[in-house]
Amino acid sequence: MSGRRRLLVGAGFLLLGLLWLSPLARDPTGVPYQPGAQFTDLLIAHLPNAYLIQRGLALWQQVPLWNPLILSGQPLAADPLASLWYPPNWPTAIWPSPLTFNLLLWLHLVWGGVGAYRLARGEGLGRAAAFLAGAVFSGSPKLVAHVALGHVTLVYAVSWTPWVVAAWGRLGEGAAGEGDWLSRRVFAAGLTLGALFLADPRWAVPAGILAVAYSLRQAAHSHNMRTWMSPRLAARWAAVIAVAGAIAAGAAAALWLPLEEFARLSTRADLGAAQRTAMALPVGRLLGIVIPDLGGWGEWQTYMGLLPLMLATLGLMQAKRRSWFWLAAGVLALLLATARPAWFYDAVSSVIPGMRLLRVPARMVFIAGLAVAMLAARGLERLSDIWRGVTTAARSRMVLFGVALAISGLGFCLSIVAGASNAGVARAGLLVGALALGGFVVLAYGLAGKGPAAFVLGTILALVVFDLAFVDATLLTVKGVRPAMQERARLGEAMQAAGRVRIFSPSYAVPQHVAARFGLELADGVNPLQLSAYREYMSGAVGFDGEEYSVTLPPFPTGDPRAPWRTHLDLEALGVLNVGWILSDFPLHAAGLQLERTTEGVLLYRNPQVRPRVWVEHGDGQGYAPEAASLLEWTPNAIRVRAKGPGLLVLSEVEYPGWQAEVDGQRTPIEPVHGLLRGVRLGTGEHEVRFIFRPWRVFVGLGISLMTLALAVIGSRWL
Length: 719
Prior knowledge:
Blueprint: H1 3-20, H2 22-26, E1 31-33, H3 41-59, E2 66-67, E3 74-75, H4 91-94, H5 98-122, H6 127-138, H7 141-148, H8 152-174, H9 181-199, H10 201-222, H11 225-228, H12 231-251, H13 253-265, H14 273-276, H15 306-318, H16 320-338, H17 342-351, H18 365-384, H19 392-419, H20 423-447, H21 453-474, E4 477-479, H22 481-486, H23 489-497, E5 502-504, H24 512-517, E6 525-526, H25 532-543, E7 552-553, H26 571-576, E8 579-584, E9 594-599, E10 602-606, E11 614-619, E12 624-628, E13 630-634, E14 638-654, E15 659-663, E16 666-668, E17 671-673, E18 677-693, H27 696-718
């Protein structure tokens, strides 16, 4: 493709990205929300991490590897939501704002569209058909709905999917051949999958399965079956796949090596079968493939566009041999999304590494969306054959296709409008009917041989874009940056002035982006990965079921964090965690709890049993008498303390592999205290104690990733 054509294709997808995110395009500095939602993960998780990384670089001249802001501390370097090792996300650490995230989300949708375009071109489709594939994939209502939910890293990763599939497909095509170019394909396949893993490792499992299957499909298509089944070629393909997988693992080692440890120590490792399928797509939601759920929840979105679906059907009718893979991928993805039948989902989860850690099967719909995009491109390609001369049988099938469009359009218009009591459903029915009728008119016009091909194909593409843009606009609303960022800012200022102690709230009273902005440390928090030991401790200190998996701590029984629920606060246990303030949107009752004042509708309670951040417990035969120690220096990665022994120095910070202690410059073992905190034995006299976070997995993983990248650069240039 010439440079001019590349620019035109890129410009086209840039414009389409603005259409898909039209509410954001009108207010790019605002915060995207699901319509009617009070919260978004962009503010809950991603912006706070960006604030912390920026503060670490600017204030402490270090990359923070530990996150002290939520859940009394947990490893930032192992947290996929931090995107610490994903270079395209680094601008958010330089300029942490909703605008930066919005720009990156837009560019990733563009990247996904261009990737689907290249994937379709690799299958031999024309430019118009390939452009349709890119438009259908990048404008997928499910993808845009996840932008609205604030699932930043998931959108990043899904946008890499067609690039990964295309790279692994080229790997399969050349697996049985000889030549220096094969090495470049191996590096490309490994690096794209590694980049997707760094963006969001949760999506690497389904994307990796699809990529390997597509590679096998391309290898089988490149050779006749007898040749392909020979032991030599099969072994060669398996070896090439293994090398590409090793490169992917090496490129992503900076994240997966520490993540493996974090996941193993977290509540995610104990997911039961019911918890893994709790967010499976309800079977009834499959109707949404045809009738869009305007303004509906992103996890249940299944609409892929009516005309793309019809074109995909045409693609199956006209090119069965080349379409079976995408048909199988789409059907299997929908089966996995619904987790039905249960035995099938359990069998797949048992065989595929990492799948038992996934808990939202409904996201498999992304693969079905890519399958529909590729089949729709195939259908448009067949349609364009009208002007190149097609057989009578093919023309007859297209006539039947057009009649089906007309009948479905009239049927939807009449049945939905006549029977729907819900205005949103009626609007969706009218949209579907109008699109079906419009597609029939355009198809009939083309079959009659009137007008140039470019006009007919362009009209179909315009209808597809209108369809997707209309639905996408209902799935995303924007809150102005000032109202979003000023939410409970006065409360944040008040807590910042109250001194350095931790805060706990049973009602998410201090939003995490507010806490990060003002440097507040929370004992509660929202994160899919939570240390099992910490959750168990907090279940006793607060009074909730510690066995139940939840992305929030504490879990909110009604789903609304500000709705009252029955707490059983143990002020002493919370005090051990240096919790000096308990903030709530509803009244709390616990012996000794002191209500100080109300700020922005939030009740501010003081905990009289709060412990200092660091203290020494002296044994006197009658128990332990805690004595405060001096905190000399604090950063996320290092803490320096002065204390007088003998006794056990207790630092009210969560113990985790990688933390090391030095007493007067000498390495000293760390003892777990209360099964959770860090303790160090001190001898008689005054001592200086230093705690340093040096997780070997992070440094080894980063070294492996850098070596892999260097090897890829050298190999791609010289091999």
